[in-house]
Design a protein that fits this description.
Helices cover about 25% and strands about 25% of the residues. The two termini are about 25 Å apart. Bound molecules: flavin-adenine dinucleotide (FAD).
Length: about 375
């Protein structure tokens, strides 16, 4: 048995920002963080390649979007990360594309309203840095997807013999019935761990979480050969290309994101929308192939304003499709008053907590700072 003060499930932006803030405030002496992925980052992760040590592709969120200039503790955090060179303003050109494949005004979208910062050298560097800031106060368990939770005698029991006084979930997977179908789990682990009536706040939170929806993304990753000369004189090299609502409905694509690589090569991520087909362990392999084929087919018509990019497509290499299960939450948020459930000592953080930045990186960071303050 290893006893710790706090166990955090999820090493995305919010989980890493939480342990970093708790360490800074000296709130807990010992923490453990569990993460299903191979490293920190979550939806702000970066895809690397075994066959190419220099390849880095931000295949989830390409940028940290804010609703306005960050203030207070959030402003201080962003300022600190900028001073340390981990964040830099994301000034790359962003274009709008209409249903005829022509350039147009940017569509209205919360992710495009305020300032944006980009992780340096990659998006994953933001969560990596926050986690490193927590130092040796936090143990890390990567590649460990928690599927069972127990709460006995005021202690949370976790795989590997870990016991924690306090538990924080940074995602909704362990609290949402979608895991039953999507992962074939027999129950909702958090609901099974704490009986109804023990913590009225937790009961209310679980009820609200159960009806939350998120829009799934199928992101196609491509390597494009280098584009030589100055082929972008008519339209500057795009960083992001956002489709209008009409174009989105027609193509099933939200946006295209370009990521320059070493040696002049380009990484291109096509953010594909979901079509509602049931995602289960047995359907996922076919769905990945289906989305790869449909996104490859639609791509040439989306690059018409950039002939040099369009011309590079025949030499493109597909690096497959990544399904983002916990994509942007839609309209339901967990009220901040339910972010901490004191009887069961369970907390929540993530971009699905209500407040400025809901559904975006800003909300993930803000929710972590808010919870850290509550736990102080
Ligand atoms: C395709 C895409 C594009 C986006 N674009 C933008 C953008 O342009 N601007 C912007 O601001 N935001 C964007 N976002 C949203 C942004 O990525 C999120 O707001 C932010 O990364 C959320 O961080 P988080 O820590 O709340 O959640 P997550 O990053 O989802 O972290 C939760 C972590 O918990 C882990 N986890 C969950 N359950 C378990 C379990 N049972 N066991 C172990 N580990 C578990 C997950 O693996 C994950 O790493 C985008 C998101 C996606 C998917």
């Amino acid at each position: 048995m290893a006893d710790v003060d706090l166990a955090v499930i999820g090493a995305g932006l919010s989980g890493c920002a939480l342990v970093s803030a708790l360490r800074r405030n000296h709130t807990f002496d010992s923490m453990v963080i569990f993460e299903a992925g191979r490293g920190p980052g979550g939806r702000c992760a970066t895809r690397r390649r075994r066959d190419d040590a220099l390849w880095r592709l931000d295949h989830g969120a390409p940028t940290l979007s804010f609703s306005g200039s960050p203030q207070g503790r959030l402003g201080a955090l962003v300022g600190d990360l900028c001073d340390r060179g981990v964040l830099a303003p994301d000034a790359g050109p962003v274009f709008g594309l209409d249903g005829d494949g022509a350039l147009c005004e940017l569509p209205a979208h919360p992710l495009l309203c305020g300032p944006r910062w980009r992780g340096q050298p990659t998006m994953a560097a933001v969560a990596e840095t926050l986690l490193a800031d927590a130092g040796d106060a936090v143990f890390t368990c990567f590649g460990e997807r928690i599927s069972k939770l127990s709460w006995e005698d005021g202690r949370w029991l976790l795989p590997g013999g870990w016991r924690a006084h306090t538990l924080v979930l940074s995602g909704t997977l362990l609290a949402h019935p979608r895991s039953l179908a999507m992962l074939g789990w027999p129950d909702v682990p958090l609901r099974s761990a704490v009986a109804v009536g023990v913590d009225p706040g937790l009961d209310a939170a679980l009820e609200l979480i159960a009806v939350m929806t998120a829009s799934v993304r199928w992101n196609l990753m491509l390597e494009l050969p280098s584009v030589t000369g100055d082929p972008f004189s008519s339209n500057p090299f795009p960083r992001q290309i956002w489709l209008t609502a009409e174009a989105r409905d027609h193509c099933g694509v939200e946006r295209l994101v370009l990521h320059q690589q070493s040696g002049g090569r380009l990484g291109l991520v096509v953010h594909g929308l979901d079509d509602g087909a049931a995602i289960r362990p047995d359907t996922q392999p076919d769905l990945l192939v289906h989305h790869e084929n449909r996104l490859l087919a639609v791509l040439p018509q989306l690059l018409v304003p950039w002939p040099a990019l369009q011309a590079a497509l025949p030499g493109a290499r597909s690096l497959g499709v990544m399904r983002w299960g916990a994509a942007q939450p839609l309209d339901q948020a967990l009220p901040r008053s339910l972010q901490w459930c004191p009887q069961a000592r369970v907390g929540f953080c993530g971009d699905w907590i209500a407040g400025a930045g809901f559904g975006m990186a800003e909300g993930a960071l803000q929710s972590a700072l808010d919870l850290a303050e509550t736990l102080q």
